[in-house]
Amino acid sequence: MKETPTKGYVSSDFAIGFDPRDRDKLYQMWDQIFESNRWSEGTFTELFESLWRDWNELPSVAFASWAGAAMACLDYIDVRGKIVLCPSNTFMATPLSVIKAGGQVQFVDCNRHDLCMSYDDFVAKAEKWRPAAVWLVHIGGHIAFDVEKIAAYCRKHHIWLLEDCAHAHGAHWHGKKPGAWGDAGVYSFYATKTISTGEGGMLVTRHEDLVQHARKYRNYGKFDHLVEGLNFRMSEFTAAIGCVQVKRMPEVVACKQEYARHVLDPLYPNRLKLRDGMGSGYYKYIVFNQVEHSTGKVYDQPCHRILGHDVELPNSDWVTENHWCVPIYYHGANVSPDGNVLFTDD
What we know:
Number of helices: 10
Helix content: 25-40%
CATH superfamily of the largest domain: Type I PLP-dependent aspartate aminotransferase-like (Major domain)
Strand content: 15-25%
Shape: globular
Radius of gyration: 20 Å
Order of helices and strands: EEHHEHEHEHEHEEEEHHEEHHEEE
Distance between the termini: 5 Å
Number of strands: 15
CATH class of the largest domain: Alpha Beta
Number of domains: 2
Structural class: alpha/beta
């Protein structure tokens, strides 16, 4: 086993990206919550939203899940009976959010080189279906390569662009963060994500009306009940974890980026290669050769196959068969006497 000094610790063993050095700080926050007798809709939810806004540079609304934030967006747009385009190479949560909101999903193919939505197929499907909205998914931790062209098309044709940022913590491109190209972005803080709160989500948007709609949607439409929402509130205990995690995120992401650059890139030349100036949070390290000790696929079935749609999406089928993920996880436990943290290269 080789040990290399860096700003983080990476190994092949799965670990939630929580740094043990933050435990005492988190326990102090939880003590404050106990003492306040306010376990929901309190100080730490507001602080988490504020910290996320500072990083993402967009107004932010915390939710109990990605799904709640996604449904708030689709409810605001009112996609009932309307077409929403969605990549097939994504998690089923993306198309299911449309279906549960009363919309109709039509699938779009991906690119082979970045696993994200293809601009050419998007335009073809947009011309055919005239959608009300489109989900653009940032796969694996990087920004979709065609995001700027897709966003420009959506602006020109008055299509709502929603960015699925579930993997994209810490990513950036051309000075922008995920969610900044479209009308809204939705993050997940599920247990496997680059930074996690166990469960949780965050909606980011430049539309103040959507911010207000989302706050009502997550809380049963209180108090005028003009918004038909349900309970998607984030608890104060979860929000406190989020406050700790977002402050730690630069270190977590820098650790993964350094490990990818210095350890993995030389080993895997046939990998997904980022565009110039793009930074990935490396939720996944994706290669196009079979890896003996991989963590499997990002997705092992395209959604159009799962839902039985009769549509040919050859790139989505190809990606399913021809990519694998190399282990890359942050551990914050190993600190050397000089204050450096170590990662291991097995």
